[in-house]
Amino acid sequence: MFRRRRQASPTSIFEHISTHVPAEGPGLREGGDSLPDEGPGTMWAPGAQDGVLLYHWGGSAEPHEVERVREALAAAVRGRSAYDALIETVREARVISLVDDLLGWVRESGLDPEATYQLAYRLATRAHDREAVKLGIALLGLYSADHHRDELMTLGRHDEFTIFALVALANREGDVEADLWELARNVTGWGRIHLVERLADTGDPLIRDWILREGFRNDVMDQYLAGVAAAVGDLAGRLADAPDDDLLIAASDLFDVLCDEGGPVEGISGYDEGERAAGLFLGHMATRADDLRHYFAVRSLQTYATEHWPHLADRCAAILQRPLWADLARLGLGSTDEAEFYRASRACRMLGVPTLEAHLSRVRDKPYDLRHWHLCMKEADSGTLGQVLDLATDLLPLSRIATGPAEEDGLGPGFAPHRCLDAFLPKLGEWPGQGWPIVAAGLASPVVRNRNMAIRTLAAWDETAWPAQARDAVTAALAREPDADVRERLGLLLDGHPIE
Apex CA 265: angle with CA 263 and CA 266, to 5°? Predict the structure, then answer.
């Protein structure tokens, strides 16, 4: 048995996650996703950077980077005084890109197993930096997970570390699948994607059913797991029986995303029984279609079938022509459930049912809800644009936004009003001279993105459409601008040259 010397700091990442594990339910309590090592300008969701590297890059670290980490690791195993140097070395690395090479080397290196374990455990449970924690978890994977199963299950609840935890958990005698399934139900982002893919070979009918009904759902993009769920859960076979209502909803959501072949992974063309499953699904929809999720699925199937399965396209059209869809969509606009409301809004756009008043009503209750502002601007036309802009100038604290230029990234709750400008500035480029108070606020915002978008809006307008005060405002902005790139664009704008 390997001895563990545990002296965890309350500010370590492990302790941070531990204190945010809820009494029940998935995920972490509020604030748990934000790790102690995060600084300003963090743009990646938990686990996203590693997930993108795995899915869309697939490369490995440069040999010299792997060698630097090897040397620092070896020194830290041999002497505790080298621990801080290892942390500094790993902090700038991407452990996901070098872990395979590194672990292969550790197995052959002759490093003392006890000292290596103690270092791994210390990194995993006491480090304050995420890459160091990942290295610790990866090293723990060289040892039986029976020694540290609880720690891995805790760390794995944060999507940043799930993929490392699942690999380490696999080195355990007994029912590893039970642990992985438990962890899969407790994460909803990139961690779930990794875990469901690992569980795809399961023979357990309960896990297969869960993947089909629920496991494919995630906070990143359901397309990543839709094909896995259809195959593992035997979607076609289940539809050939007597599927319950919940299973038909799951099937609807799967078809809706599978038919989009422009996603990050292969769509319905990669599901061998796609055509059979689609035909069976439409058979149920002929008598049981009564939910907007059914509508989205049939509409997506119609788009795909028109080109690939023409014999199914007419069946889709007959279902879509029913008058109940517009009625359901209008009814959903009054729902207090956000998910139901957005489904209704999506259906209304497809059916040509106006939604502007519904979204204006929502922003009156939640003035900083960017999504509703986006949809207001998307639907606004020459007759309603003024109504939207007037409400925006009433509800948004433009003077609090226009505090002067700085180099802020606009992240965090304090910048919620500033982020609302994202809904207006790009669209206002299509409406010369409209919404100047919003453009002026963007021009004087401390958020670099706001200023760049305001410049692009003015560049899209012919200068003859600029309000009388616009040139003076741009001149003043140029004099105060701290960012060299933004300053250059302001100068080009004033000189009448293209800004890009």
Answer: 95
